[in-house]
Write a structure and sequence with these properties.
Two copies of one chain form a homodimer. Chain A is an alpha+beta fold. Chain A is 32% helix and 25% strand. Chain A has a five-stranded antiparallel beta sheet. The first copy, chain A, has a two-stranded antiparallel sheet with strand order 1-7. In chain A, a hairpin with a 2-residue loop joins strand 4 and strand 5 (127-143). The longest helix of chain A has 41 residues, at 3-43. The N and C termini of chain A lie far apart (68 Å). Chains A and B meet through helix 1, strand 2, strand 3, strand 4 and strand 5 of A and helix 1, strand 2, strand 3, strand 4 and strand 5 of B.
Chain lengths: 202, 202
């Protein structure tokens, strides 16, 4: 092979090599980052955010989490004095749901959001019943073995009334006690959440 | 440069070049495919799949779609003869939901899945009410201006009883007529779906 041929060929190959070093990792890492962003959203880290005082910041985006069930305990079935006179639409953060599907356990960091929805009407084209009306606030439960080491099951409970953007945990007696006594599984009322029952590994 | 140096160097570069052709696109395309799979799931394309005869294949993964509302019309509020004696947990495919948030319209290809959930109990620690029991089947509505050009609103309706993996569209009179007459918005009962009302641009 002549030098006059070898050098242009080598130049092209070296150029390709150098460009590859520059672009291949950058482009690939960009795609990896996008992919990992998705992974992180779906499979890792808790959705719970706390301020410096330990108050839970109001969860966001939960309407695109995994809906697990929505009982209704209306006033007119409780002599006008229902403790929770609304639909309770309960959502679980997707990362913890993915973990639950694998292990059947509520992982550390699990967030359950309970969105309260007023009864809007009791009669529709489909018959008599209870039909969702307007949103009336949210509550949340967070499992955290470090932050809530002293709470039974490591679960703490929070309520966000209208306009509230953070909340202190309720005292143990306010919510945890009843969840501990009556919930089917790890302080969670899975007996009313068919999506969780179906997702649990057999 | 001596030939004895040039050839090994070139050999290495050529090897790198050849390997690059083999691996770079494959690896990158794999990442692209993962990313595009996510994009397709989230932002583009309909979730509706039809067989050659035009039957809708049973939707999958809908429990991780966007829950929009869950009315209940139990038998005991309808003299034992409820047309739909269950909870109706309604989910919308995420791509169409994202579009709805932007435009306030149900895009072509929108899929709504209605999962039927039996009433499991009427009394719980939280009071009297209706509590979800077990799954009892799903129904679906699909908007498609080409495939359902003759259906009012271009909506067709399908029901999947237990074990059914595909379904023919109902005749227009069976579902579409009532949706056309009673649903608040484009054949959809948004009056009972607070998540859609809240997502609609003002």
């Amino acid at each position: 092979m002549k030098k006059s041929v070898v050098f242009p060929v080598m130049a092209v190959l070296v150029l390709f090599f150098v460009l590859s070093i520059g672009t291949y990792p950058a482009f690939t890492l960009d795609l990896l980052a996008m992919h990992e962003g998705h992974e992180m959203m779906m499979h890792g880290g808790s959705e719970a955010r706390f301020d410096d005082s330990g108050a839970l910041m109001k969860p966001e985006g939960y309407r695109q989490w995994v809906f697990v069930g929505g009982p209704v305990t209306p006033n007119d079935m409780n002599e006008g004095k229902a403790a929770f006179p609304e639909f309770h639409d309960v959502y679980m953060d997707p990362g913890s749901f993915a973990e639950y599907k694998k292990t059947g356990k509520f992982r550390d960091g699990t967030v359950l959001v309970k969105e309260l929805v007023n009864v809007g009407s009791k009669k529709a084209a489909s018959g008599n019943g209870y039909f969702p009306g307007d949103f009336a606030g949210i509550a949340a439960a967070v499992k955290d073995s470090k932050r809530f080491a002293k709470e039974p099951g490591n679960w703490a409970y929070f309520s966000f009334s209208a306009g509230k953007d953070k909340a202190e945990a309720f005292p143990t007696s306010a919510c945890n006690a009843c969840h501990q006594a009556k919930a089917a599984e790890d302080w969670v009322f899975t007996q009313y959440y068919p999506v969780l029952r179906a997702a649990k590994p057999k």
